């Protein structure tokens, strides 16, 4: 080849080679950016779902705390009661009706903690729920029965046990909230 031909062919070949290399490098860069963007979106979706589950679990724990506060208040009034008229007043308390609604709602929300799949939360939940639930049901049903049959008959020992368990469950709820905070931070 002549020198003049080489002067034309070499720059054209270099330009074409540069275009090919540039295209492939840009394509690889675009693919990497796209893959990172998709991963960020996926992480964002998982974070939103995780945050919603934590929020639901925190609401569940807060509702239990509210219920136990209300039940403890009702329980103290029942422990002070001496006759059916006192029970009538307890039955007509606003918190008495609210406690039934909260108890119904909580029984439907038990799966909220299962979804998080955290052994510590489930263990704490399993520790306090079987001990408290029957006592709470006893208290609420017994008030209604006493008023209906007009006969004051209540097991004060069970009510004292309920009072003690409500007080000790405060620690369990504090641990559960702390664990929920840890779970919330763990994804971020």
Written overview of the protein:
There is one protein chain. The two termini are 65 Å apart. The chain has 188 residues and is an all-alpha fold. It has one domain: Four Helix Bundle (Hemerythrin (Met), subunit A). The chain has six helices and no strands. Helix 1 crosses helix 3, helix 1 packs antiparallel against helix 6 and helix 2 crosses helix 5. The model has no long low-confidence stretch (mean pLDDT 83).
Summarize the structure.
The protein has 188 residues and is an all-alpha fold. Helix content is 90%, strand content 0%. The protein has helices spanning 3-80, 84-91, 94-108, 111-116, 119-149, 156-187.
Portion of residues within helices: over 70%
Low-confidence spans: none
Please give the CATH class: Mainly Alpha
H and E string: HHHHHH
Whole-Å distance between the termini? 65 Å
Provide the residue-averaged pLDDT: 83
Proportion of residues in β-strands: under 5%
Class by SSE composition: mainly alpha
What is the number of beta strands?
0
How would a textbook summarize the main sheet? none
- What would the principal axes of the Cα set say about the shape? rod-shaped
Radius of gyration: 33 Å
How many discrete domains?
1
The helix count comes to 6
User: The CATH topology is what?
Assistant: Four Helix Bundle (Hemerythrin (Met), subunit A)
Report the CATH architecture: Up-down Bundle
